[in-house]
From TrEMBL:
Enzyme Commission (EC) number: 1.11.1.11
Basic and acidic residues bias locations: 235-249
Listed InterPro entries: Ccp1-like (IPR044831), Haem_peroxidase (IPR002016), Haem_peroxidase_sf (IPR010255), Peroxidase_I (IPR002207), Peroxidases_heam-ligand_BS (IPR019793)
Lineage: Eukaryota, Viridiplantae, Streptophyta, Embryophyta, Tracheophyta
Family (UniProt): Belongs to the peroxidase family. Ascorbate peroxidase subfamily.
PANTHER family, A to Z: L-ASCORBATE PEROXIDASE 7, CHLOROPLASTIC-RELATED (PTHR31356:SF64), THYLAKOID LUMENAL 29 KDA PROTEIN, CHLOROPLASTIC-RELATED (PTHR31356)
UniProt source species: Eleusine coracana subsp. coracana
Name by which UniProt lists this protein: L-ascorbate peroxidase
Length: 350
């Protein structure tokens, strides 16, 4: 019985792989089990990692509940490819930014999917990549497109979030309690309107941050913790208009040289962002108006009982930052997403 179930699951995976258009449209697609050609396809598709029985069952459910959910086995193997990409190209920061910009369009006041925006893979379409806030993210898409092509049974929405969480973890950050199973939007007409992501230099930075992040259903603690992602990466004047063309920390790369980083070691995830933003002692390091607000706005740096819980605390206590960051990142990665199966799944179970 177990063998027959596994064979059925394999054939279904082969059918999904062989008929991406049917998968996209959600049409049912049946295979005659007696076809020798299909049996060969099934055997080839069966070669990658052998799943325990539980995994097979969930994969069947995911494939039948909605045709666009990701295959856990493919996602897990894709994660290894992402690690290799990170090792060879040092693209951690831009992958984090990609995941954040796909999710960060979410509007909690809109109930319908995908009109509510969020982590739904819409950022793969030109219509959204052309938004001013997304300048340069086409490079992130180009980097991970070969991985998407290699694993046809994963969604863009999951791949973006997997890439971002893997980049944080591989840069030395905390393990993010991620779940997967995000469904993709199907066309550019489902992209969110421009203007949902935060500006770096608004007239009242703290008010602006609250307006944008509260719309996503996030709170002050999450705003401050998530801003700590700027411990990674650089700003480039030719993309966002912010930052210096190069500094002593960026002129030799790694990766494409140039830009201005928030921290000296901008490929290492730690709490140095908060230390540097607090001190503002190095002209070669960037402080955006929205970064500075974290130490200027009273509620971002301390609670009402004057305990240092957010920015001040993160500058002193890396463990506290890592704990809050991991929770906030996972929450961000789920914003607006439609999951199949509805509860999502963790790669730790496979
Ligand atoms: C709080 C409001 C935020 C503002 C105003 C903001 C603004 C910016 C700007 C202007 C850049 C430079 C882009 C470029 O020139 O290429 C940038 C880069 C970056 N942002 Fe943010 N950001 C915010 C929040 C976040 C969040 C929540 C995350 C992730 C959780 C994030 C992750 C990054 C990363 C990793 C980079 C570096 C990208 C690279 O080096 O290619 N940012 N951000």
């Amino acid at each position: 019985m177990a063998e027959r179930l596994a064979a059925a699951a394999t054939l279904r995976a082969a059918a999904i792989t062989a008929a991406p258009s049917a998968r996209r449209t959600g049409r049912a697609f049946f295979l005659p089990s007696s076809s020798p050609a299909l049996a060969r396809v099934a055997l080839r598709a069966a070669a990658p990692p052998r799943l325990p029985q539980r995994a097979t069952t969930v994969r069947c459910m995911a494939a039948s509940a909605t045709a666009t959910a990701s295959d856990p086995a493919q996602l897990k193997t894709a994660r290894e490819d992402i690690k290799e990409l990170l090792r060879t190209t040092h693209c951690h920061p831009i992958l984090v930014r990609l995941g954040w910009h796909d999710a960060g369009t979410y509007d909690k006041n809109i109930k319908e999917w995908p009109q509510r925006g969020g982590a739904n893979g819409s950022l793969r379409f030109d219509a959204e990549l052309k938004h001013g806030a997304n300048a340069g993210l086409i490079n992130a898409l180009k980097l991970i497109q070969p991985i998407k092509d290699k694993y046809p049974s994963i969604t863009f929405a999951d791949l973006f979030q997997l890439a971002s969480a893997t980049a944080i973890e591989e840069a030395g950050g905390p393990k993010i309690p991620m779940k997967y199973g995000r469904v993709d939007v199907t066309g550019p007409e489902q992209c969110p309107p421009e203007g949902k992501l935060p500006d770096a230099g608004p007239s009242s930075p703290a008010d602006h941050l609250r307006e944008v992040f509260y719309r996503m259903g996030l709170d002050d603690k999450e705003i401050v913790a998530l801003s700590g992602a700027h411990t990674l990466g650089r700003s480039r004047p030719e993309r966002s208009g912010w930052g210096k063309p190069e500094t002593k920390y960026t002129k030799n790369g790694p990766g494409a040289p140039g830009g201005q980083s928030w921290t000296p070691e901008w490929l290492k995830f730690d709490n140095s962002y908060f230390k540097e933003i607090k001190e503002k002692r190095d002209q070669d390091l960037l402080v955006l108006p929205t970064d500075a607000a974290l130490f200027e706005d009273p509620a971002f740096k301390v609670t009402s009982d004057t305990q240092n819980v957010y920015a001040e605390k993160y500058a002193k206590d890396q463990d506290a930052f890592f704990k809050d960051y991991a929770e906030a990142h996972a929450k961000l990665s789920n914003l607006g997403a439609e999951f199949s199966p509805p509860q999502g799944f963790s790669l730790d179970d496979y």
